[in-house]
Amino acid sequence: MLSILGRPQTVCNGITRRDMLQAGGAGLFGLTLPRLLAAEQTLAHSHRARAKSVMFLYLFGGPSQLETFDMKPAAPAKLRGPFQPIASRTPGLEICEHLSKSAQVSDKFCVIRTMTHPHNDHNACHYIQTGHKWTRSAETGSDVNARETDWPSIGSVVEYLSAHEANGRDRTFPDYVYVPNRLGHLQGYDRTGQYAGWLGAAYNALATDIRKKGKDDNPFFRNCDDAELDFRIKGLVPKSEMPLNRLNRRSSLLEQFDGNVRRIETSKRIQDYHGIRERALALVTSERIRDALDIRKEPDSLRDRYGRHLFGQSALMGRRIIEAGSRFVTVLWDAPDGYSWDSHRNSQSLEKYLIPGFDQTYSALLTDLDDSGLLDETLVVAVGEMGRTPTPTATWGRGHWSHCFPCVLAGAGIRGGITYGRSDKDAAYPAERPVSPEDLAATIYWALGIDPELRLPDRQGRPTPILEGGKPLVELFG
Predict the structure, then answer these.
(1) Tens of pLDDT along 435-478?
(2) Contact (CB, 8 A) for 404 and 430
(3) What pLDDT does 11 receive?
């Protein structure tokens, strides 16, 4: 194998990476930088993977640490919050009374209490999904929408590497999927951090598109019927309904277009087109994808356990997608009302919908994955982009607070029934073992067997590390 940033491994013929660099510099092997990068990509797995796949449960807006997994019952009444703590199966871990189902399965998960970073607004959605700080605020002001120059999401890096490392593996089903909708779309935004950025649009997630019924509707707060829970990709038709000559015509038109763009092949955007084209043609007749995205195939009893609200059904869909072979699935709890987990106003939504809804779904997901054997090979990450202020408002809302917030990990060898790190007396700052978004991203990559120090070519073809710092939390794995 090749070494990746200094790890001495050899290729199958015994040549080291240093040998290849020297030979490439002399032109003996004709080893150009792109070919060297391609070789490194192919051999990105520098250790045995603990996880075959990742489910990334993203609670956009920022759940309160003090109302979930880091309660401070001894704190002054003005700080500790309106909810009572209850015991869990984890020694020393008291969690919110509205997380009673999760308390019963806490022996399956680890609570990191000390996620921290300085980016105290929702653009941290870029940071938590990529492992890279948001750097556009000064130049763009209020612009929260994604750009092609953004850093690629962790899922997009996984998709990119899967595309370059297929080695005969069936790649019909995309390796990066986003459900139930793209981040921000229910609010009218197209938020950053969820896309492939400079890696190219060919490595964006396959995203489903569940909409809300009206301006003030919040499908995460209510039961959804099957008519609106249509996760299937629009325009995806059964193979029996796609005449061969129609498919051939589509392919022929694409081939003609190819001929016209070959002369400008150096354009990154045009190069992206080929990957998009291949995926689009595969999607047209994929019975496997169509079946996996049909939530109606699940038993009613299991759907009820997950919860009929949008987050519950989306998490169940995420499990179906993992079963079908995808490697990175983001299950989003968005903010269609503009608030949700961004609970500035009061604690009523937390008490009625948010915490109980997460509790129902999370406990059902871990139990379901465990019963099926998938938990052994699936890393489940539950996190927001920040937490909430220790000091509440008069109505028990809380403001933005990125300096200390929780992340919950399970599966793929994670040692359940433990906590990691300790916050101070007010859950305001880490007192022990702070964990950065870089550390979390490195842990996810490491669990998947991907070297966190791997380099990929940017839009100019320059070798660029997928992370700039960060250390995998290997001690969390048994």
Answers:
(1) 999 999 999 999 999 999 999 999 889 999 999 999 999 999 99
(2) yes
(3) 40
- What's the pLDDT band for 134 if we cut at 50, 70, 90? confident
| CA-wise closest residue to 385 among 442, 332, 327, 309 | 332
Q: Count CB neighbours of 70 within 10 A.
A: 25
**What pLDDT does residue 336 have?**
95
Question: What residue ranges define each of the domains in the chain, with the CATH number in brackets?
Answer: 44-224+298-476 (3.40.720.10)
In 3D space, the residue among 309, 306, 384, 305 whose CA is nearest the CA of residue 353 turns out to be 309
d(CA 331, CA 54) in angstroms, rounded, equals 10
**Over the chain, what is the mean pLDDT?**
85
Report whether the peptide linkage leading into residue 180 is cis, meaning its omega lies within 30 degrees of zero.
yes
- 3-class secondary structure for 430-443? EEECCECHHHHHHH
Whether the CB-CB separation of 55 and 382 falls below 8 Å is answered with no
β-pairing verdict for 378-383 and 405-410: antiparallel
Q: Is 449 left (phi over 0), alpha (psi -120 to 50) or beta?
A: left
Residue 38 amino acid letter: A
Mean pLDDT throughout 362-387?
98
pLDDT of residue 9: 40
Which of 230, 238, 242 has its CA nearest to residue 287? 238
C-alpha span between 61 and 64 (Å, rounded):
10
Q: CB count, 10 Å around CB of 262?
A: 8
Centre a 10 Å sphere on the Cβ of residue 363 and count the other Cβ atoms it contains: 22
pLDDT at 3: 29
Using the structure block, give the residue that is written with the tokens 């899967």.
162
Which band of pLDDT confidence, cut at 50, 70 and 90, is reported for residue 47?
confident
**Residue 396: partners with Cβ closer than 8 Å, 6 or more residues away:** 81, 82, 346, 347
- Distance CA(283)–CA(291), nearest Å, equals 12
Cβ count near 396 (within 10 Å): 18
How many Å from the N-terminal Cα to the C-terminal Cα in the chain?
27
Query: Where are the strands (E) in 79-145, listed by range?
Result: 85-87, 94-96, 109-115
- The confidence band for 27, taking pLDDT boundaries of 50, 70 and 90, is very low
Query: What is the β-pairing status of strands 109-115 and 418-420?
Result: parallel
Question: Which residue stretches of 67-113 are H helix?
Answer: 77-80, 100-103
